[in-house]
Amino acid sequence: MRSVTVELGSRSYPIHIGRGLLSRAELLLARMSVPRAVVVSNEVVAPLYLDRLVTALRGAGVDVSTLVLPDGEIHKDRASLDAIHDALLAGCAERSTTLIALGGGVTGDVAGFAAATYQRGMPFIQVPTTLLAQVDSSVGGKTGINHPLGKNMIGAFHQPRLVLADLDTLDTLPERELKAGLAEVIKYGLIRDREFLAWLEENVERLTAREAEALAFAIERSCIDKAQVVAADETESGLRAILNFGHSFGHAIEAGAGYGVWLHGEAVAAGTMMAAELSHR
Protein backbone atom coordinates (compact mmCIF):
# COMPACT_ATOMS: atom_id res chain seq x y z
CA MET A 1 0.00 0.00 0.00
CA ARG A 2 1.23 3.48 -0.89
CA SER A 3 0.21 6.48 1.22
CA VAL A 4 0.23 10.24 0.67
CA THR A 5 -0.72 12.84 3.29
CA VAL A 6 -2.60 16.06 2.58
CA GLU A 7 -1.00 18.39 5.10
CA LEU A 8 -3.65 20.69 6.58
CA GLY A 9 -2.64 20.88 10.23
CA SER A 10 -5.23 19.30 12.51
CA ARG A 11 -7.34 18.44 9.43
CA SER A 12 -4.58 16.53 7.64
CA TYR A 13 -5.64 13.21 6.14
CA PRO A 14 -4.12 10.21 4.35
CA ILE A 15 -4.65 8.96 0.82
CA HIS A 16 -4.14 5.18 0.75
CA ILE A 17 -3.48 3.56 -2.64
CA GLY A 18 -3.37 -0.18 -3.26
CA ARG A 19 -5.25 -3.38 -3.94
CA GLY A 20 -7.78 -5.01 -1.64
CA LEU A 21 -8.39 -1.86 0.37
CA LEU A 22 -12.19 -2.13 0.31
CA SER A 23 -11.82 -5.07 2.70
CA ARG A 24 -9.50 -3.14 5.06
CA ALA A 25 -12.17 -1.80 7.40
CA GLU A 26 -9.56 -0.83 9.98
CA LEU A 27 -8.31 1.89 7.64
CA LEU A 28 -11.74 3.53 7.61
CA LEU A 29 -12.54 2.89 11.27
CA ALA A 30 -9.36 4.71 12.30
CA ARG A 31 -10.70 7.90 10.68
CA MET A 32 -14.28 7.69 12.01
CA SER A 33 -15.55 9.53 15.07
CA VAL A 34 -18.01 6.78 16.01
CA PRO A 35 -18.66 3.32 14.50
CA ARG A 36 -21.65 4.44 12.47
CA ALA A 37 -21.69 5.20 8.74
CA VAL A 38 -23.88 5.84 5.72
CA VAL A 39 -22.43 4.63 2.41
CA VAL A 40 -23.57 6.48 -0.71
CA SER A 41 -22.93 4.80 -4.06
CA ASN A 42 -24.46 4.70 -7.54
CA GLU A 43 -26.34 2.13 -9.57
CA VAL A 44 -23.24 1.12 -11.59
CA VAL A 45 -20.70 0.80 -8.76
CA ALA A 46 -23.01 -0.59 -6.07
CA PRO A 47 -23.58 -4.03 -7.67
CA LEU A 48 -19.81 -4.43 -8.04
CA TYR A 49 -18.35 -3.17 -4.77
CA LEU A 50 -20.96 -2.06 -2.22
CA ASP A 51 -21.38 -5.46 -0.56
CA ARG A 52 -17.60 -5.86 -0.19
CA LEU A 53 -17.25 -2.55 1.63
CA VAL A 54 -20.36 -2.95 3.78
CA THR A 55 -19.46 -6.53 4.79
CA ALA A 56 -16.01 -5.39 5.89
CA LEU A 57 -17.39 -2.48 7.90
CA ARG A 58 -20.07 -4.56 9.61
CA GLY A 59 -17.50 -7.21 10.38
CA ALA A 60 -15.54 -4.51 12.22
CA GLY A 61 -18.59 -3.56 14.28
CA VAL A 62 -19.72 -0.52 12.29
CA ASP A 63 -23.46 0.22 12.05
CA VAL A 64 -23.91 0.77 8.30
CA SER A 65 -26.79 1.93 6.13
CA THR A 66 -26.66 2.52 2.37
CA LEU A 67 -28.09 4.70 -0.37
CA VAL A 68 -27.78 4.06 -4.10
CA LEU A 69 -28.16 7.02 -6.48
CA PRO A 70 -28.61 7.16 -10.26
CA ASP A 71 -25.33 7.30 -12.18
CA GLY A 72 -24.00 10.05 -14.42
CA GLU A 73 -23.12 13.73 -14.57
CA ILE A 74 -26.74 14.60 -15.30
CA HIS A 75 -27.55 13.46 -11.75
CA LYS A 76 -25.00 15.75 -10.09
CA ASP A 77 -27.92 17.93 -9.06
CA ARG A 78 -30.15 19.13 -6.27
CA ALA A 79 -32.36 16.04 -6.52
CA SER A 80 -29.44 13.75 -5.64
CA LEU A 81 -28.38 16.09 -2.86
CA ASP A 82 -31.91 16.05 -1.44
CA ALA A 83 -32.00 12.24 -1.65
CA ILE A 84 -28.90 12.02 0.57
CA HIS A 85 -30.24 14.56 3.04
CA ASP A 86 -33.57 12.69 3.13
CA ALA A 87 -31.81 9.39 3.88
CA LEU A 88 -29.68 10.96 6.61
CA LEU A 89 -32.72 12.50 8.27
CA ALA A 90 -34.88 9.38 7.93
CA GLY A 91 -32.09 7.31 9.46
CA CYS A 92 -31.58 9.77 12.32
CA ALA A 93 -27.93 10.25 11.38
CA GLU A 94 -26.01 12.35 13.85
CA ARG A 95 -23.29 14.93 13.24
CA SER A 96 -20.74 12.30 14.29
CA THR A 97 -21.97 9.76 11.72
CA THR A 98 -19.52 9.30 8.84
CA LEU A 99 -20.73 9.67 5.27
CA ILE A 100 -18.77 7.44 2.87
CA ALA A 101 -18.81 8.07 -0.88
CA LEU A 102 -18.23 4.92 -2.97
CA GLY A 103 -18.08 5.83 -6.65
CA GLY A 104 -16.65 8.24 -9.17
CA GLY A 105 -16.40 12.01 -9.17
CA VAL A 106 -20.14 12.68 -9.28
CA THR A 107 -20.85 10.48 -6.26
CA GLY A 108 -17.97 12.00 -4.32
CA ASP A 109 -18.87 15.59 -5.14
CA VAL A 110 -22.56 15.26 -4.26
CA ALA A 111 -21.98 13.16 -1.14
CA GLY A 112 -19.26 15.54 -0.03
CA PHE A 113 -21.58 18.52 -0.37
CA ALA A 114 -24.24 16.64 1.58
CA ALA A 115 -21.67 16.00 4.32
CA ALA A 116 -20.65 19.67 4.33
CA THR A 117 -24.23 20.83 4.81
CA TYR A 118 -25.90 18.15 6.96
CA GLN A 119 -26.09 19.54 10.51
CA ARG A 120 -23.44 22.09 9.39
CA GLY A 121 -20.85 19.42 8.70
CA MET A 122 -20.33 15.69 9.28
CA PRO A 123 -17.25 13.47 8.78
CA PHE A 124 -16.72 12.31 5.22
CA ILE A 125 -14.62 9.57 3.58
CA GLN A 126 -13.89 9.27 -0.12
CA VAL A 127 -13.65 5.80 -1.70
CA PRO A 128 -13.13 6.72 -5.38
CA THR A 129 -13.65 4.00 -8.00
CA THR A 130 -12.56 5.77 -11.21
CA LEU A 131 -9.10 6.89 -12.24
CA LEU A 132 -10.22 10.51 -12.50
CA ALA A 133 -11.69 10.46 -9.00
CA GLN A 134 -8.63 8.73 -7.52
CA VAL A 135 -6.19 11.33 -8.89
CA ASP A 136 -8.30 14.47 -8.71
CA SER A 137 -11.85 14.93 -7.47
CA SER A 138 -11.54 12.88 -4.26
CA VAL A 139 -8.56 14.94 -3.06
CA GLY A 140 -8.71 18.53 -1.88
CA GLY A 141 -12.16 19.04 -0.42
CA LYS A 142 -14.04 20.56 -3.36
CA THR A 143 -17.65 19.38 -3.22
CA GLY A 144 -20.76 20.50 -5.01
CA ILE A 145 -23.48 20.09 -7.60
CA ASN A 146 -24.13 21.48 -11.06
CA HIS A 147 -26.66 24.16 -11.99
CA PRO A 148 -28.30 24.59 -15.39
CA LEU A 149 -26.34 27.83 -15.75
CA GLY A 150 -22.94 26.40 -14.82
CA LYS A 151 -20.95 23.39 -13.63
CA ASN A 152 -19.96 23.13 -9.95
CA MET A 153 -21.48 26.53 -9.20
CA ILE A 154 -23.08 25.40 -5.93
CA GLY A 155 -20.82 23.78 -3.38
CA ALA A 156 -18.42 24.03 -0.45
CA PHE A 157 -14.90 23.21 0.62
CA HIS A 158 -15.18 20.20 2.93
CA GLN A 159 -12.12 18.02 3.39
CA PRO A 160 -12.50 14.25 3.74
CA ARG A 161 -11.10 12.37 6.71
CA LEU A 162 -9.59 9.76 4.37
CA VAL A 163 -9.24 8.90 0.69
CA LEU A 164 -9.15 5.15 0.01
CA ALA A 165 -8.15 4.38 -3.58
CA ASP A 166 -8.55 0.65 -4.21
CA LEU A 167 -6.90 -0.21 -7.53
CA ASP A 168 -9.13 -3.29 -7.83
CA THR A 169 -12.00 -1.00 -8.83
CA LEU A 170 -10.11 0.07 -11.96
CA ASP A 171 -10.33 -3.50 -13.30
CA THR A 172 -14.00 -2.94 -14.14
CA LEU A 173 -13.63 0.65 -15.35
CA PRO A 174 -14.72 1.07 -19.00
CA GLU A 175 -11.89 1.98 -21.36
CA ARG A 176 -13.47 5.33 -22.18
CA GLU A 177 -13.52 6.24 -18.48
CA LEU A 178 -9.91 5.15 -18.02
CA LYS A 179 -8.70 7.33 -20.89
CA ALA A 180 -10.77 10.26 -19.62
CA GLY A 181 -9.05 9.93 -16.25
CA LEU A 182 -5.64 10.07 -17.90
CA ALA A 183 -6.38 13.67 -18.90
CA GLU A 184 -6.21 14.71 -15.25
CA VAL A 185 -3.05 12.65 -14.73
CA ILE A 186 -1.32 14.32 -17.68
CA LYS A 187 -2.43 17.71 -16.35
CA TYR A 188 -0.12 17.38 -13.34
CA GLY A 189 2.85 16.84 -15.61
CA LEU A 190 1.94 19.88 -17.67
CA ILE A 191 1.36 22.31 -14.81
CA ARG A 192 4.13 21.47 -12.33
CA ASP A 193 5.93 18.15 -12.76
CA ARG A 194 8.13 17.93 -15.86
CA GLU A 195 9.82 14.73 -14.68
CA PHE A 196 6.41 13.06 -14.32
CA LEU A 197 5.42 14.30 -17.78
CA ALA A 198 8.50 12.65 -19.26
CA TRP A 199 7.61 9.41 -17.45
CA LEU A 200 4.06 9.58 -18.82
CA GLU A 201 5.31 9.99 -22.38
CA GLU A 202 7.33 6.79 -21.98
CA ASN A 203 4.72 4.79 -20.05
CA VAL A 204 1.28 5.81 -21.28
CA GLU A 205 0.77 2.44 -23.01
CA ARG A 206 1.41 0.69 -19.69
CA LEU A 207 -1.32 2.81 -18.15
CA THR A 208 -3.86 2.11 -20.89
CA ALA A 209 -2.98 -1.59 -20.51
CA ARG A 210 -3.77 -1.23 -16.78
CA GLU A 211 -0.41 -2.48 -15.54
CA ALA A 212 -0.72 -2.44 -11.76
CA GLU A 213 2.65 -0.92 -10.89
CA ALA A 214 2.36 1.80 -13.52
CA LEU A 215 -1.13 2.75 -12.34
CA ALA A 216 -0.08 2.77 -8.68
CA PHE A 217 2.88 5.03 -9.45
CA ALA A 218 0.84 7.44 -11.61
CA ILE A 219 -1.93 7.72 -9.02
CA GLU A 220 0.53 8.25 -6.18
CA ARG A 221 2.50 10.88 -8.11
CA SER A 222 -0.69 12.71 -9.11
CA CYS A 223 -1.90 12.71 -5.51
CA ILE A 224 1.47 14.02 -4.29
CA ASP A 225 1.28 16.87 -6.76
CA LYS A 226 -2.29 17.76 -5.84
CA ALA A 227 -1.70 17.38 -2.10
CA GLN A 228 1.18 19.85 -2.23
CA VAL A 229 -0.91 22.44 -4.08
CA VAL A 230 -3.89 22.00 -1.75
CA ALA A 231 -1.67 22.29 1.33
CA ALA A 232 -0.30 25.58 0.00
CA ASP A 233 -3.67 27.06 -1.03
CA GLU A 234 -6.63 25.11 0.32
CA THR A 235 -9.42 27.46 -0.77
CA GLU A 236 -8.04 28.49 -4.17
CA SER A 237 -7.10 32.07 -3.42
CA GLY A 238 -4.05 31.85 -5.67
CA LEU A 239 -1.81 28.88 -6.50
CA ARG A 240 -4.56 26.25 -6.49
CA ALA A 241 -6.09 27.82 -9.59
CA ILE A 242 -3.30 26.10 -11.54
CA LEU A 243 -5.22 22.84 -11.06
CA ASN A 244 -7.97 24.32 -13.25
CA PHE A 245 -5.78 24.13 -16.36
CA GLY A 246 -8.08 23.10 -19.20
CA HIS A 247 -11.16 23.36 -17.01
CA SER A 248 -12.52 26.76 -18.09
CA PHE A 249 -12.99 25.58 -21.65
CA GLY A 250 -13.78 22.07 -20.43
CA HIS A 251 -16.64 23.14 -18.19
CA ALA A 252 -18.06 25.26 -21.02
CA ILE A 253 -17.99 22.21 -23.29
CA GLU A 254 -19.80 20.08 -20.70
CA ALA A 255 -22.46 22.68 -19.99
CA GLY A 256 -22.94 23.58 -23.64
CA ALA A 257 -23.20 20.01 -24.90
CA GLY A 258 -25.39 18.96 -21.98
CA TYR A 259 -24.08 17.31 -18.81
CA GLY A 260 -23.03 13.72 -19.47
CA VAL A 261 -22.56 13.97 -23.24
CA TRP A 262 -18.81 14.51 -22.77
CA LEU A 263 -17.05 12.83 -19.87
CA HIS A 264 -15.34 15.34 -17.61
CA GLY A 265 -11.87 14.09 -18.52
CA GLU A 266 -12.66 14.28 -22.22
CA ALA A 267 -13.78 17.88 -21.86
CA VAL A 268 -10.67 18.72 -19.82
CA ALA A 269 -8.45 17.15 -22.49
CA ALA A 270 -10.07 19.28 -25.19
CA GLY A 271 -10.01 22.32 -22.91
CA THR A 272 -6.30 21.82 -22.28
CA MET A 273 -5.59 21.89 -25.99
CA MET A 274 -7.74 24.99 -26.39
CA ALA A 275 -6.01 26.77 -23.49
CA ALA A 276 -2.59 25.89 -24.87
CA GLU A 277 -3.53 27.17 -28.31
CA LEU A 278 -4.91 30.41 -26.87
CA SER A 279 -1.73 30.92 -24.84
CA HIS A 280 0.36 30.31 -27.96
CA ARG A 281 -1.59 32.96 -29.85
Question: Would you mind describing this structure in some detail?
Answer:
This protein is α/β, with parallel strands linked by helices and 281 residues long. It has two domains: 167 residues, 3-Layer(aba) Sandwich (Rossmann fold); 109 residues, Dehydroquinate synthase-like, alpha domain (Up-down Bundle). It has ten helices and nine strands. The strands form two sheets. Strands 1-2-9-6-5-3-4 form a seven-stranded mixed β-sheet, sandwiched between helices. It has a two-stranded antiparallel ribbon with strand order 7-8.
Shape: globular
Structural class: alpha/beta
Number of separate domains: 2
Strand portion: 15-25%
CATH topology of the largest domain: Rossmann fold
Q: Which sheet architecture does the biggest sheet show?
A: 7 strands, mixed
Question: What does this entry show, briefly?
Answer:
This protein has helices at 25-29, 46-59, 78-90, 105-117, 131-137, 175-191, 194-208, 212-232, 247-257, 264-280; strands at residues 2-6, 13-18, 36-42, 63-69, 98-103, 124-128, 142-147, 150-157, 162-166.
Please describe the structure with a list of short key phrases separated by commas or semicolons:
seven-stranded mixed β-sheet, globular, Rossmann fold, 281 residues, Dehydroquinate synthase-like, alpha domain, alpha/beta, 47% helix
